[in-house]
Structures are given as C-alpha cells and as structure tokens.
C-alpha cells in the first residue's frame, strides 16, 4: 500500500470517527442512561440527592475556609459540578464539588486580599480563573487522550500527599478551635505558631469546638451501628425497626449539618441574650445567587499567581476523581473511561468558573454517602445542586451565626480519616525501598506544600524506576578493535553512560583503541544518543581511531542514517567491521603528531 | 555466606574505603596534579588567568544586572569559585563564576528590595542564601553519588531551555540599550513592554548601545581571523607575525573589557564637560572587598522566596558545569568524574556564600578562552580570582561611569551564540517526535520562566520514554478461566492498565469469568501493583469468581507472599490453576443473589 493510500484511509477513518453517532454518545453519557431510566428509581435519586446536599452545605462553607476564600464561594462551587456531571459523567455515584485537598491547593495559588481585614483571605478572582483554566486543561487533556499521565503517580505518592494534606488541613484549623489568630501557610509554621500563641486561647471557642468534635464522633458511631444493623436486617424484618435504623443512619450521615445547626443555634441564643463576642462567628455572608459572568481575564499578573497551579490543580483534581470513579465502578459493576471523566470534570470546572466557583472535583466522602443512599443515576446530582441553590437564595442570613470553631470541627473530623498511617507498616513488610518515596513525598509536603511534595515523590519514584535505563549494563570483548555490547536499550538517560564507557574503555586510556559498538540488543535510540555517537565518532577520529556500529536493527539504522554521521560507519557484522578498520591506515594520532613536531 | 558474614565484609569494605589514601586523593584532585606541575607551565597559567580575568570583569558586572542584584555582587561571585575549584576540581579548563543562565535563575528566587529605587533590584540576602543551600545540596548529592540525576535531562531539553534563556536574557537587555524603564519578569511581557514604551527611547543610550554591539562584532571577527592565522602559522614563521596575530587574538578575546572601557571613557569625558545625564550610567558601586560572614539565616521567609529554586538551581548549575567539563576533558584528553565535580561546585557555592556570592557554575565562554590560552592547570584560576580581588579593591570608583547600554551590549552579544536554532532542522530530519519535547521546553520557558519550561520538557521526555511502561501489551487466551499474559514488566505506571484489563476482559462483562494471571515475563512488581492485585482479588471474590497468579518468579513471589493477599492463590502452572479453580464451588455471584432475592 502506498503512503498516499494510507493517508486516504487514515483520513477516512478520522472522518468516520468524528461523525459516528456512537462516538458522540460516548461523549454525552446521559444519552445512554437516560433513555433506560426507570421512573421507580426517582425516589432513590431524590433521597440520595438530599442526603448529599445536607453534607455538602456545611462542608462547602468549611472548605472555602481552607481555600482562604469568603465562605459563600464554597457554595458557589457546590452546584454547577452536580449539574455538569449529569451530562458528561459516566459514574452514578460521583458527586463533584469542593473538596479538602483542592481547597488546600487553591489556597496556595491566590493573591492576598488587601482589604484590611484580619483574616488572611485571598482574592477570589484568581481562584475562579484557576477553575476556568483548570477546566480548559482537563477538557484538552481528555480530548488528546492524556488521561494516562496520572498513572505515573504511584499509590505510595498518593498516600503520602493525602496524609500530608490531612495533617496540614487539620492543623490549619486548630487555631479556629482555639480561637487564636495568626497567618501561616504550611504545617511546620502552623505547629510553631500554635505553640507560640497558645496562651491567647479563647475558652468559649475551645469548649464549643471540643463539644462539636465529641458530637461528631458520637454521631459517626451511631451511623456505623445503624449501617451494620441495616445490613443484617433482611426485608422480612418489621418495618418499624427498618425505619428506626434508617432514621439513625440519616442522622449519622447528616452529622455535619446537625452539629453546625446546633452550634449556630447556641450562638444565636447567646447573641439574642446580649452575650455577644464570646464565640468567634462567621459574620456577614454575601446573600443571593452568584452572577453569571466570564472570569476576569483582565486581572493583573494572572500567571504570576497561578503558575505551577495550572499543572498541579488539574492533575490532582483528576487523580482524586478518577480514583473514586474507578473504585465505585468496580463496587457497583459499571465502567468509567478516564478520558471521558477528564472531559466531564473539565466542564464542571469551566462551567463553574462562570458562576464564581473555584476548582472542584469528585468528593470521596459525599460520593460514598451517595452510593450508600442507593443513588440510581446522576440525576441525584440535580437534587443536590438545587438544594445548594435554595440555600444560597434563602439561607445565607443564617450563616452569620455559624461559629468558626464548629466549621473547624467539621473539617478536622473529616480529614482525620484521610490519614493513612498503615501504609508505613505495609511498605516495611512488602518493599522497604518504597518507604523512600513515602518519606520524600510526606515531609516536603508538610514543609513546602503538597504540590512540591508530590513532585518530589514522583521524582523519586521515577528515579527508582528509571535507574536501569540510565545505567544499562554492557560487556567488553577485548581485542583491537574493542567490541562493546550494551545489553539493554540506549535511550537519552543512557547518553552519559555511553560517553563514559567509550572514554574509559577506549579513548582516554594510555593507548586509545578503535571501538566496534554492537547494537544487537538495542531496540531504539533517540536524538540524544545519536548526537552522543556523533560527538564520540569525532573524538575517535581526532585521536586517530575509529568508532563503528554493527548489527543495527532497522529502527536504529534509520535514525543513524538520518543523523548522517560522516565518521561513523555502519557495518553488518563484527567480522566485517574488524576487517575494514584494520585495513584503513589510521591517521596519525596527536601523540604521533607531537613526536613529529618536536625535532623541528 | 551467611547474612552476618556479608555484613561484616561490607563493614570492612566501607571502613577501608573511608580510610584509603586513594579515595581521599580523589576528593582533593590537586594532590594529584600539583606534585607533577612543571614550573615552565607557569607563564601559560598566568597569561590564561589574566585573559580570563579581563573577560570576567565586564561579564560579572553585566550578569549581576541579569540577576537583579547590585552590580558589585557580580564581582563578589567571581573570585571564590576560581580558588575553590583549584582545590576540588578535576578539569584544568573550567572557570567557575557567574553565568548568564544562573543569573537568570537567581533573579527568579529573590525578594524585591523595597528601597524606593527605580530599578527592580532584589534583596541580595536571598541570593547569597541560595548560593549557600545550593552548595550544601550539591556537596550532598556528590557524596551520595547522585550525579546521575542530570542524565534524565535530554540534550533536546537542554537546547530548548538554553535558547529560551538566551532570548529571555537578550530581550531583557533591550530596554537598557533603548534607555527605557519598565519592570517585567518573562520574555513575553518584555516583548509587550518594549513595544509599549518604544516611544520613550533615549537616543544617546541607543546610539552608544548600537556602537558597542558593532564594535563587539568587529572584534570577534578579528579574533576568529587571528585564530585561523595562528593555527596556520607554524613555529618557523617570523616572530613578528606571531606577535601581531597573538596581539590581535588578545584584543579580540578581551573585546568585552575593551568596549566597556572605551564606553566608560566616553561617558567620563561627557560628564567632565558638563554633558551630564545624557547617557544612563551605573552610578555608585560599593567599594572594597566583601565582608567574610555567614549568610543571614535569620532572614524572614527564606523558604517562601527560594522554594523550588533549591532544587532547580543546584541541578541546572551542575548540568552546565558537567557538560562543559566533559566537553573539554575529551578535547584535551583527561578525565572528569561527575560526583567529584558536584562536590567541587558545591564548595565553590558554599564558600562563595561566605563572601556574598550568588550561585555560580562553570562558564562556557570563559572556559573556552581559558582552554584557547593553553592553560596548564587550575592554577590559572588563582590569577583570575586575584585580578577580581584587585578590581574590587581599587577599580570600583571607575565603575561609576560604566554606561548601562554598554553592559547590555556585552550581554546581548554573548547570549546570541547560545541560540540553537539548528536543532529544529536536525530533529525534523532525525526524529520528529522529539520536536514535541523542544516545543514543550522552549515556549513555556519564554512565558513561565526557564525553570518551569525545563520541568515541562523533562516531563514530556519522560512520558514518551515511559509510555510503554504504562501500557504494557498483553495477550488473552480465551477459555474459562481466562488466561491473561502480560508481555513486559508490571511496575506502578501499569497499575491502572492492569485494573482496566481485568475489568474489561473478565469482571465487568455480562458474565464475569475467573482469571489466571500468567507472570512468566514479569521481572519485578512493586507496592502499587501488589495493592492493585489485592483490590482486584477482592473484586473477583465479591463477584463470586477467582483471580490466581501462575509462573511467578522468585522476586515477584516474594512481594506477593509478603503482601499476603488472602484471596489470591499462587499456583505453579496454568494447568494446576485451571484444575483448582474449576474444583472450588464458586460462591453465588451478586446476580444470582438478586435472582434469589426477588421472589421474597
């Protein structure tokens, strides 16, 4: 088949691909599940949607706090994701919205608001811009089928940065429990500042915070108990017991909302009785729905503030989302596809940025609640999103009374379960080397921020994975010319090794020798190796010796031919090469030249 | 041999290693070359040292400008490297000091000085701290033999970031040639600002700048001509001609100094005749030697300002240095060793930080001059360093008159030769894929800064290199149970692939099947793969099916045994596994359970 024919075929295939109904249906998964939707499932979806909604309201306010944004931005970020994911998502269980880790990342790529307030809030403009670019990048990656890049983040790195995030987020909230104020960005500084300011603790805040945590622990135990009982009850048990257990389960699941409502009630009662100022409260929250508008692309220094966040935030967001989606897909027996999930998440973020959302992703805790509530389709998300919109429209005045310590308790309690200390024991038992990856991720994350910790962890993982690529083993067959045979591939990380081997075995020894490089085992080479061979061939020529290649496979030979190295002949076999090299009268070496020169 | 015996042997070997004279001599290379030093070479070293010194003086002042530091810091950085490298370095040709690329990087990790001056200078405290930490990190990497990490930076990425640096640095100086003022960090903003402010051009500055560039071009042509002539002349030609050509060569080599001196002379004459203010000049330069003191470790927010610079600066510095060292080592027939070069460079930087130096490395242009001047040993560096000290002690008052346009001309002219446009053609011819790496390095470097461009380029390179690791090919042998056989290694990037294959081939199909995973071709697995197998085994068990492993090599079996996966049996062969799996009565699958449940 001629190259023209191939091109015509390829074009036709691409054309057919772009206009195939199936391909477009894959892009809009709702076209597959909606027609099959059974109306009797609608109650499941409504109950699940409401349960998730009860969780997302307090979480959204609390997470906005982590993201260093005005609390209402948490709610702005909590509804578009649900709507968009309905159209583009493949998993019925996933609920997209603000999460603890995304909020932590967003806090790092902001510009401090210079409004003279005591709180170290960031300018939301940049967080919204980050959501927009994050969306664009995720959609682009999905279209280009780049979902696989997150495969290079090993589960050890994920565990390390998750634990470090949990510690950073949790300790970042201790000050709100204690009612003290200071500004610090990373875990280590937080720890230092907590001890420094511990004398300023406000006892009312502290008492309230501890009460909230205790209540949360108790309600969680209720939920676990009811969960177990619900599992044991079969459909034949009396409906009263079923109702009791179900009610307890809902109370346990809605614990965040319950704690926040009770704590706010206490504060409201105190303030109504003129006991004002004892407990640090949220204060005024902007009322009403967010405006529908483009992000502010005119904001100064966008790139200065967002920088590496433009890479990290879309990636980590996708990583969280796909891990959750694949987990629930297995559990509930359906399929998700990485690149479509990227596109879905991208639309959630881009769409969100038009209503002042900051970057969001799938939330593990809320998706679990969704799944446990037997959600039947992504339609549950519509209910959740609508509940958030209603809260924005009517509930904001009540948010005034929410105590900061209660929100802090919600955060601390929810990130506590993100701490994965068991992995240390597992790694110790299974493969100790990888503890190095964990350490290289965890500790830098605490001190430099999770984004740098993650990058360092990935770096260490890759170094361990690639070590053999940089140090391919080789064998030397003594003689003149020397025959050097590399045992594995020669790709760019091995360029330095190649040079060192040639130098140490043949070129920089007392009497330089010619070398035959046997490429029998080499699958592929690249530009760096070709360039290195060119340099080496020149160096051999200068020393009056020869460098030759033998047994090159066609892929290797093609690259060498294109590089067109004058002084690097390619022969079929070691024998031919030995014969030719011995036959050519070598040019005088510099040493001989000098010997010639001296008498004059 | 028992494990105890091995340990004893290892300890003994380590002990001997630490106390062997040879090992310590390798750490202080001057102990090898100094005893063999022939006094008749001293003239070579002095001439080379002076020639390099003439180049480093104007370059140091100009590069400090790139680094956004007061000009005198260029000189502070230009002498300790020469002294330290004398002790620890292996290459006679290398001269360590400020370079264009290091200066560009240093500019990015500073804290703006709030001294109300018009120039956007950074606080030198942080640059000096960066030098200190850069030194410590380089020494540490050298001791731990981590010199190989730079092997993962391919020559394509190096070419991309070098060209982008050259463009950024060059365009960053255009404003000084035009005599206009604005503040911008990256190439794209510079370009924008130049066009915006072009109307404010000061013609005196511009004329002077262009004159300087023309003179530099002319002097370089003189040098090349004299170089060729010198090469053609043999020792029998009349000494007059030799002297003429050699003089021309020195004039050409010292062109930077000549241009700066003449330009300063013109300014001095103008100012003496009351034509003040026409040409933008350097102004007051702190006089005298720098104080010998520890860097200021009490400076606030060290990590905030230095952050990723702590990784990038030591690495790029070493990369520049080792590339130059290996190049000259080949050319002049001696050896260098990566890890010793790291240690040498580390001491240059750490030592430098005690006299207010910013991070330095080997300079290509000055090393080339050193080599062309037939330097015989690192002693030439002592001469260069002393010349810089003398300049600091006595010449600083003269620096007042140096026109900024002249320094800008020196920079623009020297970075021009760093532009590597030819690589585009080479890559197009040799291996088009790698153009992607070049693009991914070059353009982000221009807009986000070279450090991010370099990281993106390395990322793209690694993705292309590791693509087969993430997508190992496999073969399915139909039947019940299915036999799945991966053809290459299974390491963490393949964990996702493994899950997808199991899901799509066996678990999430209409009738789930048991699977036998044939590990015949698998060399090694890691924690992520073991964890994935554990998850998969659980999922198979839940579906009432079996997942089993056969033909595991000992290294793979060891990790699986340690992971201790209850529901993942390991059998010797496919036959045994088939038999056992068929024998066990499978637990009812969820589908069957549901069928059972419905009638009730």
UniProtKB/TrEMBL annotation, chains A, B:
The keyword Transmembrane helix applies. Residues 581-600 are annotated as: Disordered. One of its GO terms (cellular component) is membrane. Keywords: Membrane, Transmembrane, Transmembrane helix. NCBIfam families: sulP. It is a multi-pass membrane protein. Its main location: membrane. GO terms for biological process: transmembrane transport. It comes from Patiria miniata. The chain crosses the membrane at residues 42-64, 70-88, 126-146, 152-172, 248-271, 302-322, 379-400, 407-428. PROSITE patterns: STAS. Residues 482-587 form the STAS domain. Gene3D superfamilies: STAS domain (3.30.750.24). This is STAS domain-containing protein. It is found in: Membrane. PANTHER family: SULFATE TRANSPORTER. SUPFAM superfamilies: SpoIIaa-like. It comes from the Eukaryota.
